[in-house]
């Protein structure tokens, strides 16, 4: 076995604009550190203008935004929630915590997104909501999904954790369903270390969402003078992002389009270099969407080839990673969910997928592609 080399090309390097430090110092100067303060409001307003969502609430994580979605949809024990199995565990946990049954369905092999044509067959009398995941910042076919949801009176939640600055037919991801979520984890195009946002597109949910985020209290209404007393009025938890996180994020938000454009240029360079390698597939973006270049992945002929290639790259100091293990095949997935219909693509396609390095300022695509070519030549 070859000795592992020191990492020369990391998989990801978090973006830093240079503006964050000044805003963090202003937080210290103001002495206002807890959530829902000056920078929280600035960031929320910026995101509302950029995404055109009805209302944006910053949260401590995208996971917490998903948990808020489950509460806002009034998920009860025994309800069923449809989602893809190729998915991060947070999307399932948010609803399992409410004692719902997760119903997994197959994905499209071209985008790795939920197959919109299979949703209707999974709906029954217990179905309450549909959770779609815009994998890698590439949109699901939302028009078809919203039509099915309307026909059965279901809520649609868009997991747009990868989707900041990505669009579907001129609408920002997360603003088409009833609710949407964004992630600002350090692994995303822009970030605040740990953080997220809830995008509310149904005006009737806004007040309830503010109560849930404030630990189930009417603190927001009390501060605004709408009520005389501050008290516990409903279920909720501590889902507020701190002012430190909000200030860091505010230093990144104006750079979204610059960062996304660079990552898309990395994607284009990868595609140019790899297009003649017949035994590889790679990220696909249908004409109805505009991606943000969050992930660039290739698909090998098999899981064995994928794993061998990953090891070869690692031996050359290049980090590359596979992604989600399908949730329906996990221990918790079997306990808390079930698969609806035929599982044709989820396991096979995910087992061949390998994500390549990509981040703002990345200049190693030529080296990575040369290493891939060398592997297949050998």
Describe the structure.
- The protein has 378 residues and is an alpha/beta fold.
- The chain has a single domain (1-378), classed as Aspartate Aminotransferase, domain 2, CATH 3.40.640.10.
- Helices cover 35% and strands 14% of the residues.
- It has 13 helices and 14 strands.
- The chain has an eight-stranded mixed beta sheet, with helices on both faces. It has a three-stranded antiparallel beta sheet with strand order 7-6-11, with no helix packed on it. Strands 10-12-14 form a three-stranded antiparallel beta sheet.
- Strand 6 and strand 7 (171-172) form a beta hairpin.
- Helix 1 (20-30) packs antiparallel against helix 8, helix 2 packs across helix 8 and helix 9 packs parallel to helix 13 (365-377).
- It is globular.
- The two termini are 16 Å apart.
- The model has no long low-confidence stretch (mean pLDDT 94).
Report the end-to-end length measured between terminal Cα atoms.
Answer: 16 Å
Helix-strand pattern, N to C? HHEHEHEEHEEEEEHHHHEEEHHEHEH
Uncertain stretches of 5 or more adjacent residues:
none
CATH H-level superfamily title: Type I PLP-dependent aspartate aminotransferase-like (Major domain)
Provide the CATH architecture.
3-Layer(aba) Sandwich
Count the domains: 1
Please bin the fraction of helical residues: 25-40%
Number of alpha- plus pi-helical segments: 13
- Largest sheet properties: 8 strands, mixed
Strand residue content: 5-15%
How are the strands ordered across the major sheet?
1-9-8-5-4-2-3-13
Radius of gyration: 21 Å
